[in-house]
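fold description:
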Amino acid sequence: MSEAVTRKRWVFHLPGYDPTPPAAVKRRFERELRRFEKTWSVRASVADGTDDTNWRVNAAAPNWTVDTEYRLVRWDDVIEAAARKPAWTRIPRGLLAFLDFAAGAMPQYLRANWRYAGFFLYPFVMFIVLVVIAILAGRFTAAATGWPIVGVVVTVAVVALLWHWPGGRMFLHLLFDDWIFSKDYIRRGDPVVEAKLDRTARELVEATRSGADEIVVIGHSLGAVLAIDLLDRALKLEPALGQKGARIALVSVGSSILKIGLHRAADRFRAAADRISASPGIFWSDYQAISDIMNFYKRDPLTAMGLPARGVPLVRMVRIRHMLDPEIYRRIKYRPLRMHLQFVSGNNLRNAYDYFMLVCGPLSIARQARGDGALSAIGPDGALLEGASA
């Protein structure tokens, strides 16, 4: 069989800024895997690993079987720690992060993708609206009581109340923390995340000697930034990464690469992305969707950052509308976060992009990205068609 066929794969998945704990991520993975089975007429099962951050997946059809070692590179603990900090520290730090990105990246966002620029502005515009409501309440109270100090107290209390609710329902807490983390990541990094990436880089290098056909690093959303960081660390440990032994593939999906990479202070990150793109042993594909406002649609992340054009990554456009039954798509099309998560969810319809086909399908990442995914390779019964792996 061709080297495009995979029998054993390791997957390192780096999620975005998502506080979902590993046990819940695993349950979601198993639920969405059932959709993959039905859509592609395959059999798949999950076996537990040592903890909720790793598990094994076996997928099979009439003439192929793939075993996948799945590693969830968790950093939800970092996100939860940030969420436990009091509002009186998070709000000013979030506003400072906004000012930092407004000065350091906002003009570049507008040039690269106005939809993402709107997403960037959303939490801060909504916060201003809540503050205006609180000020109006305070002024009314001051006028009614004749005591300006009472108006000030009411203003502060209403801001606190609106921050708690509806601010939480509007995802303001999560988005403020996201931008705070991003600002700190650019300036100095996060020590806990740095340690996680160092450990995972060592594990990745060890995995290349495990007999696997392919090692896949998948970064979703802000996790795509950490995926580049991870592979850069692995390259420092093993400069010939991917040039012998297991194939190495980086898959960035719905990524926030340009969220960080377009900031004028992100020299360290841009240098890492440049090294990854220049590495001959790493295949990199980047999947983008217009219906996901949290990614930069129709932009080559490397050239957008002013880095040399090497044809890397291979940029692929996907249509989420064509991945789901029409009724399901109608239910989620106005839910931005759910649309964003479709990049790591199961499809109801066969499509050139399918997260689970990348994770546990028989075709290599490069074969799927360079062609039509598995559309022309997998038959109605799930079998790998003759010559499809060439």
Q: What stands out?
A: The longest strand covers residues 64-72. Strands lie at 8-14, 43-48, 54-61, 64-72, 214-220, 247-253, 282-289, 314-318. The chain has two domains: 8-17+189-370, 79-183.
